[in-house]
Amino acid sequence: MEHNTIVAALLGLLEGLTEFIPVSSTGHVLLAGHFLGFDSPGRAFEVLIQLGAILAILGVYSKRIWDTFTSAPHDPRARRFIASVLLAFLPAAVIGAMAHKTIKEVLFETPMLIASMLILGGVVLLFVDRMAKNPRYHAAEDIPISRAICIGLIQCLAMIPGVSRSGATITGALLLGADKRSAAEFSFFLSMPTMLGAFVYDLYKNRDILDAASATNIVVGFICAFLSALVVVKVLLNYVSQHGYAVFAWWRIIVGAAVLAALAAGW
Q1: What is the pLDDT of residue 264?
Q2: What is the C-alpha to C-alpha distance for residues 256 and 117, in angstroms, rounded to an integer?
Q3: What is the distance between the alpha carbons of residues 133 and 174, in angstroms, rounded to a whole number?
């Protein structure tokens, strides 16, 4: 149990560090757990600890969220932004519920697929980041509802572990006219209903198989994810505004290639 708790803490830190950067936190946590021999009943741990990252976002953006909702009754821009985020969330909610069993029992259990998606996603992100773009939207609130829904549809690709929820939404937003900072911010806001919905649904589906040891690991992972995500959220926007996403693309490619090599060697 002590070994699993230590590994749970490490995986929680990894979750928080990678949740909001386009490298696939779930892919990293699943692969790390695979190589560290971490046992997660129903693969609930990997989903439920994401609530820690959500609380980090809520903490950092609490004032902005409050201002948006309190101004909504008399501010069309605020109402449109709330509608954009909620409508963008719906495709993932519907498809995630329908495909939950396949995602958990097949996709989550295929390390080679996860590593391959890391590499493919890295190549796509590198290409998009280097494209010559003239962004039309410089704030997350200015992204039109129609484009927000398209971003929500693109987010559904992230149900394949290794694709990356933030990577899919950021790439979609960049292609649809957002600048690098507003793409990341829209991804942050969209993560709130998406990950909260995943948490509630997964907790409900796994309520009968979670024991005391599993609950302890989840709490430890949750706390570590919260603390590490706080750091990432506070520094990420300034970094991508100045440097873009290339470093994350190369990280994906390197990690994916290393995992494929390790699997080929029999790990």
Answers
A1: 93
A2: 8
A3: 8
Number of domains comprising the chain:
1
What is the Cα–Cα distance from 123 to 111, expressed in whole angstroms?
19
Q: What is the pLDDT of residues 76-88, one digit of tens each?
A: 999 999 999 999 9
Helix (H, G, I), strand (E, B) or coil at 137: strand
Going 65 to 235 to 29 to 254, the CA torsion angle's sign is: positive
Phi-psi region of 144 (alpha: psi -120 to 50; beta: other; left: phi over 0): beta
- For residues 48 and 11, the answer to whether their CB atoms sit within 8 Å is no
* Whole-angstrom distance, CA of residue 192 vs CA of residue 185: 11
pTM over 0.85: yes
128: CB partners within 8 A, 6+ apart = 171, 174, 175, 245
Domain that holds residue 253: 2-264
Minimal CA–CA distance to 185: which of 150, 138, 226? 138
Residue ranges of E strands in the chain: none
In 3D space, the residue among 49, 95, 42 whose CA is nearest the CA of residue 207 turns out to be 42
